[in-house]
Specification:
A six-stranded mixed beta sheet has the order 1-2-6-3-5-4, sandwiched between helices. It has a five-stranded mixed beta sheet with strand order 7-11-8-10-9, with helices on both faces. The longest helix has 19 residues. It has 422 residues and is an alpha+beta fold. The chain has two domains: 201 residues, Cytochrome Bc1 Complex, Chain A, domain 1, CATH 3.30.830.10; 192 residues, Cytochrome Bc1 Complex, Chain A, domain 1, CATH 3.30.830. A hairpin with a 5-residue loop joins strand 1 and strand 2. It starts with a strand and ends with a helix. The mean pLDDT is 95. The protein is built from 16 helices and eleven strands. Helices cover 45% and strands 18% of the residues.
Length: 422
Amino acid sequence: MFITTKLQNGLTVLTAPTAGAHSVTVLAMVPVGSRYESNSVAGAAHFLEHMLFKGTKKRPSPTAISRTLDAVGADFNAFTSKEYTGYYVKVDFQFADRAVDILADMLFDSLLAKEELGRERGVVIEEIRMYEDMPMRHVADLVEESLYPKHRLGRNIAGSEDSITDMKLTDLRAFWQRYYAPSNMVVVLAGATDGLLELVEKSFGERHGGKNHAATFPRVTSFRKRVPVVQTKDTDQAHVVLAFPSLPYGHAGETATNLLANILGGTMSSRLFVEIREKRGLAYAVSVDVERYRDTGSFQIHAGLDRKRLPEALGVMAHELKKIIAHGITQEELDEAKSNIRGKFTLKLENNTELAVWYARGFLFYPDPWTPEQYLARVDGATVEMVNKMAHQLFKKNAMGVACVGPYTSADFSALLRKAFR
């Protein structure tokens, strides 16, 4: 359970106590990410996330922030997605006041100093290069380019080297001042929470960071043609993602989609893992992920494959998708998937940082936020018919987005793809 409190300045505070906890996570989340940026400031949300750790009026240097938290063994970080940015500090409960104070300080009183901008620009560019050099990671960015051609969702969250090189301090300040208003964010307290609401009211409640500018973005429309996005690279493996348009946050079919993903590629006994890795030894890594946004989503099949046997692996993927459409899943598979999801979900939410993210995202993006218990009840209530219906709805060849990083030209890979899915 969680308790919702609205402060006078519009800030929403969610308190999620955990019995027996000795630590607390304080998380602040703002519902703005890379899809809200114009092309001229692509990467601003992520760049700003970096800059808010670079010094405040009270703590005027990066080390003044980090040493204060390192001194008490805190776990602290931030993350930027395409639709939200989060900042968190997890500490022993006795240091909770420090976590609350530092987060409020960073979010509202950061210096955004010019000299730090120059230094951090290089850091962000190196981060972009690092992930581009990791084929398993980079192919996940490329598949969204295939799914959402010429759309902001198809861009890299961090922007490009050119957009970061051209980013001005005035761009970041404008982004910060526009979206980082108390009424446009949620703070979650998860774990040992006794007395912390008063601390949040003291540190956050008197902040008036401007008006609440609702983040606007171009919605996803039906794209007539999706083409494979291929990065030709001399790698030992071929990294491939097949992606199908899926459902947004809060859709009635969300749990059926999660169960389908689990059955197809969510475990070491899932269909794709068994067929591709265990029976044929074609890959080390095979998995299925589900991405969700406000107005759309995607169902993604990931694999790192023996580059010489890519045609065989693509054929197995196509066959398994056709088979699940033609014959559906079994009751035994569904029961095992439900049990697996329940077990993993329970373990995940024993980490109060994961619990905080769960509640923050639910509050910001779901019309009627689910508690963990409500989510698990939906999983338990899913039927074979619901999951089979979802497979028919999702797996449409003409809607598929595809990306590959490996020793193939775009023409060669496209030919292999057409042969596998003919």
